[in-house]
Amino acid sequence: MKCLKCKSNQVSTLDSRSLEKGNSIRRRRICNVCGQRWSTYELPKTMVDFYEEQMERLFELEQFQMASSVYKGGSGKAKGTAWTKSETDRLIAMYFEQQPLREIAEALSRSYMSINKRLCYLRKNGKLKIS
Predict the structure, then answer these.
(1) Are residues 72 and 79 in contact, defined by beta-carbon separation less than 8 angstroms?
(2) Considering Cα of 20, then 22, then 24, then 27, what sign does the dihedral take?
(3) Could you give the C-alpha distances from 93 to 81, 84, 96, in angstroms and in order?
(4) E strand or H helix at 101, and its extent?
(5) For an engineered disulfide with 5, which of 13, 36, 79, 108 has Cβ 3.0 to 4.6 Å away?
(6) DSSP string, 27-88
(7) How many CB atoms within 10 Å of residue 108?
(8) Is pTM, for the whole model, over 0.85?
(9) What residue ranges do the domains of the chain occupy?
(10) Average confidence (pLDDT) over 96-106
(11) What is the enclosing helix (H) or strand (E) of 17?
């Protein structure tokens, strides 16, 4: 590890503590050259993998929020068709089965953008919990 300030390799650990019921470790570090102090956090590999997967899925959802909402995708449904409870339940089930969003859109006869927007809406309103 290198010092964040002077880039020296002469770094010591001052303190190590277990956090979040043993799921992570916080280490206080100090540079032996310039005296700069900082904290590092370590997670078990399984948690890191889980968080990376979730972040990839969130990125996939959010990267298309800024895209044009005009895209209809030839779904056959009129633009602005209201979501039924059964469609929403099916969307959530397919999402947690980790099916690709394009396949979900095709199965529900919705556009890709419609699926993204609905998932963002559900997450924002606490109806879709990711974790």
Answers:
(1) yes
(2) positive
(3) 20, 14, 5
(4) helix 101-107
(5) 36
(6) EEEEETTT--EEEEEE--HHHHHHHHHHHHHHHHHHTTTSS-TT--TT-SSPTTPPPPHHHH
(7) 19
(8) no
(9) 11-42, 53-124
(10) 90
(11) strand 11-19
